[in-house]
């Protein structure tokens, strides 16, 4: 309610300013001149955009009251903070991008390991590297995104069961969620954050329509599905193609598990020589990890049940990890131990 009142007052001030300006200028129509909209100076556009920024949500700007641990949550250990999100225009205004949402979700993915307030404080610390007005705009975007997340969670809970829905009901729900996004976020930000998600949603609904259309033959359904997939953004289209290829590969790998030469030949034909060699190396590395993890897990469980005091037990665990894994793998092992 306070936000609506604030926005209403801002609109009144803008209208009053425009009216005052109009009254102080000569009316070109009164002199017989055609009325032509004057070009707006780009710097004024920048100022107007900054002035229209709403106050941040109550969920942000609480850094001073939140204690943030020095170490990242265990699930983020060994990972890198997404980059590419700090984009601004030539006037210093924030340019919303999918990378900005990735930054938000990177930290929010650790909810449960840390409080929401602590994770928001981490995001705010990252945003503090921006100059004004982009920094204030980013904080408003963060607050609105969090409010949207809370609102969409409530909406989805109200839907109840989601399996077995028809295309019409899925379309209705998708339209409601899209409207909710544009309630909390401006059009540019909503498009930047959710364009790919919404393209996938449209594709899934079209898949349901095609599958339930009894007037189509199997061949017609396959062609309709190919056409629907062609409407996806290129990165998503390529990702689906890669997913299909690897799904096929998993099936072949099971079938040729006892024939390494035949499997290698299939890889070479399906992925090309260089990619097939990389894939073979990755599989060997994964097998090596699996074997070492199994041995380590058994030794770890014996260690944890040995009755050692906490400091000695932690030191023994670190020595055990170091005996089985390299430095990067030790981070992975510690993260897996933290969620076991």
UniProtKB/TrEMBL annotation:
Main location: membrane
Keywords: Cell inner membrane, Cell membrane, Chaperone, Lipid degradation, Lipid metabolism, Membrane, Transmembrane, Transmembrane helix
Pfam family, any one: Lipase_chap
Membrane topology summary: Single-pass membrane protein
Subcellular localization(s) per the UniProt record: Cell inner membrane
GO molecular function per UniProt: unfolded protein binding
GO cellular component: a single term: plasma membrane
UniProt xrefs under InterPro entries: Lipase_chaperone
GO terms (BP aspect): lipid catabolic process; protein folding
Function, as annotated: May be involved in the folding of the extracellular lipase during its passage through the periplasm.
Annotated family: Belongs to the lipase chaperone family.
HAMAP family, A to Z: Lipase_chap
Name used for this protein in its record: Lipase chaperone
